[in-house]
Automatic annotation (TrEMBL):
The lineage of its organism: Bacteria, Bacillati, Actinomycetota, Actinomycetes, Micromonosporales. This is Methyltransferase domain-containing protein. InterPro entries: SAM-dependent_MTases_sf.
Length: 571
């Protein structure tokens, strides 16, 4: 916690006329706030509209408050930290800031929109009684005037982000982790949350499952798509969620890779159970016009918001880092994911069908190229981004495309090499377990496509992958060099390079020990074979010397020499 401002300078500071202390404010306390979230900001601004009154309950990013005021809304901001409230009042003179607990604030006037996308955990104050979760939700609901709306994001304590968390002592070490007891965390499932808001007089408009974390959601799934395993969006959702969890958990210590848990949940239609949280938009009965039905799926980042049907630009025009450009492509299609099929064929050691799938992919990629060069989303699409339909492969989702065409050979080698890296680092079974490295495995896969590969091809493929990762994750030059070396060094026993969970690290350690024991056993077996052959040769040599020492043996050797002389005579 930072220190309080210098008390000697306090009398000289201008008065904060837009700050009101309502009671229960926490002194010498400050709370970190998540970064601006374009998805939550877009939904909040859309609900507020120009001229509406908005209550922002709890700590939120400055960007959200700025966007609301810029859109013409009259904003009131409630913060329990007095230090944060004073800073907010100085930074936003047009905003009315309330310092204190939600239970102490007078909200009877009502608001057109109540924004609580930080949840309810930080609406109570340590300087007073702790209101139960049901009471907090009821107070938020009663703050909505007739015709108004509430947008609430509630943390899921059973979410994958809690399940895989590996941060001992965080609940006692970090001030931001302070929250009421488990019994006061509120509803434990989305139906419980919507039932609580309905019981407070609100009507549920939209309810989303938010991924990957409630503090920074980038994917919202709701409507009929949520839990529907037969939806044509399913293959695309698996790709989108895998990318979202990769970005969120890259380089963070976790118990296990959350992408595996989410993938299994999607297969079972249980993604709502392990979601990071639930975003609910509820309305109070009234005559105010409501927006049209929202899409079932929203995917957002700093560049904009995408739906399965369209893209909404909310940020500045995208740059072209490292010679790449943004490719906002979403194309749900009926079929099967190519990478999933290849993984299944590798596990079954079905080399014939594996060769057919890879050859089909190579033919499709060649058809996308001109004069040996390829551009567009297909050039940088991973095998996980591709689906196979009755008409052939298609790109389901893409985020990047090359600004200039690249060699089709490089695109092919990169895709197959990346698949080989996943086979190795994910410890997935395949027909060639004795390959020395991911490069060797990629050479085999490229050969199945009818292509030869050189060391220069591999280097170009790795450099291209490093470029894509640098653009995706904002890697600095030193991080790019380290990442490139790590990719070149992938071999059996290497842990995942992006999300290295404790389970995956333990699995990699077991594989290394197994390989070491296997090599030792092979060395021992080889030594035994060599010793056995040496003994056999020694015995044969002894027998040969014994026979040569006898008369019959000397006669046989003389006849052998004569035969050789007769054969070599004419030459």
């Amino acid at each position: 916690m930072p220190d309080r401002p210098d008390t000697a300078a306090a009398p000289a500071a201008p008065p904060l006329t837009n700050l009101t202390r309502v009671g229960g404010e926490m002194f010498s306390w400050t709370e970190p706030v998540a970064r601006d979230n374009p998805l939550l900001t877009h939904l909040s601004v859309e609900l507020a509209g120009p001229g509406g009154t908005v209550l922002v309950a709890g700590p939120h990013p400055d960007g959200l408050v700025t966007a609301l005021t810029t859109g013409g809304a009259e904003v009131t901001w409630l913060l329990r930290s007095l230090t944060d409230a004073e800073q907010a009042a100085r930074a936003h003179p047009a905003v009315t800031v309330l310092a204190g607990a939600l239970g102490k604030a007078d909200l009877t006037a009502g608001y057109d929109l109540v924004v609580a996308t930080d949840g309810i955990q930080r609406l109570n104050s340590a300087e007073g009684d702790q209101l139960p979760a049901a009471e907090l939700l009821d107070r938020l609901a009663r703050a909505v005037r007739p015709g108004g709306a509430l947008i609430l994001l509630h943390d899921n304590r059973l979410g994958a982000h809690h399940t895989v968390r590996l941060d001992p002592g965080a609940g006692h070490r970090d001030d931001a982790a302070w929250h009421p007891a488990e019994a006061m965390d509120g509803p434990a499932a989305r139906p419980q949350l919507t039932a609580a808001l309905t019981g407070s007089g609100l009507e549920i408009g939209t309810a989303y499952a938010a991924f990957p974390e409630p503090g920074a959601p980038t994917v919202l799934i709701g409507g009929e798509t949520l839990g529907d395993v037969a939806s044509p969006l399913r293959p695309w959702l698996r790709t989108v969620l895998a990318r979202a969890y990769t970005t969120a958990f890259r380089g963070r210590p976790v118990l296990s890779d959350p992408r595996r848990l989410i993938d299994r949940a999607l297969r079972a239609g249980a993604e709502d159970t392990v979601a990071g949280g639930w975003l609910v938009i509820a309305h109070a009965p009234g005559d105010r016009d409501r927006p049209a039905r929202r899409p079932d799926v929203l995917v957002g980042d700093q560049h904009g918001i995408r739906t399965p049907d369209a893209a909404i630009r909310t940020g500045p025009a995208p740059r072209e880092p490292y010679g790449l450009r943004r490719a906002e492509l979403v194309r749900p299609a009926a079929g099967y994911p190519l990478e999933e099929r290849l993984l299944d064929l590798c596990a079954a050691a079905d080399v014939r069908r594996l060769r057919q799938e890879i050859a089909q992919y190579e033919a499709w990629l060649a058809g996308q190229s001109r004069d040996g060069l390829i551009d567009g989303p297909a050039a940088l699409a991973d095998l996980s981004d591709l689906g196979v339909t009755p008409d052939g492969p298609v790109v389901l989702s893409a985020r990047w495309a090359p600004a200039e065409p690249i060699p089709a050979q490089t695109a092919l080698v990169r895709a197959l090499w990346q698949f080989a890296v996943r086979l190795v680092t994910w410890a997935r079974p395949h027909p060639w377990p004795l390959t020395a490295s991911a490069a060797d495995l990629a050479a085999i896969l490229t050969g199945m496509a009818g292509r030869s590969v050189t060391e220069e091809d591999f280097r170009a493929a790795v450099d291209l992958q490093v470029t894509v990762d640098a653009a995706e994750f904002g890697l600095r030059p030193a991080e790019r060099r380290a990442h490139r070396l790590a990719l070149l060094a992938v071999q059996p026993g290497t842990a995942p390079l992006d999300v290295a969970g404790y389970h995956e690290l333990t699995e990699a350690l077991w594989r290394q020990r197994y390989q070491a024991s296997h090599l030792l056993a092979m060395m021992e077996w080889t030594e035994q074979i060599i010793a056995s052959r040496d003994a056999q040769l020694s015995r044969m040599e002894w027998e040969l010397r014994f026979h040569r020492s006898r008369v019959s043996g000397r006669a046989l050797m003389a006849a052998k020499r004569a035969y050789r002389m007769i054969r070599s005579g004419p030459r």
